[in-house]
């Protein structure tokens, strides 16, 4: 026996279930069964009016207000970080100015150009570079000699120790 005057049918697409305790969606006013009462379950077109979530900025832990009703939380937080976030001083990405005097270009990494030098300055620079290279070469040569001397003396000391111990044994045996 069926009671057609009792209950109502679910208005969700493909359901049409007769429910004796139907519920009314508070956003779209549709009559729904217990399986489709959530906004996502019946694809509620008016859920934005009731399903309001206030995002929190991950950097400064402040609540981020929406700029308009249908804005996504990600976009609201992103806009907040770009404009209003007071978590820390934001460093400029393109803070390095080009080293050429007439250039106004900014770069992410410092770029240094070698400017043309006068012949006298260039010759002085070459002489300084040559003297530095010679001093470095001499230092390396001296270090190599010192290492060879140490290796030679340590090898000779080891050989002398083994020879003297052999001589001592032969003396003791006689």
Automatic annotation (TrEMBL):
InterPro entries: AN1-like_Znf, Znf-C2H2_ZFAND2A/B, Znf_AN1. It comes from the Eukaryota. GO terms for cellular component: endoplasmic reticulum. Residues 4-52 form the AN1-type domain. It holds the Pfam family zf-C2H2_ZFAND2. GO terms for molecular function: zinc ion binding. GO terms for biological process: proteasome-mediated ubiquitin-dependent protein catabolic process; protein targeting to ER. Residues 152-166 have a biased composition (Low complexity). Residues 139-174 are annotated as: Disordered. PANTHER family: ARSENITE INDUCUBLE RNA ASSOCIATED PROTEIN AIP-1-RELATED, ZINC FINGER AN1-TYPE CONTAINING 2A-RELATED. This is AN1-type domain-containing protein. It comes from Adineta ricciae (Rotifer).
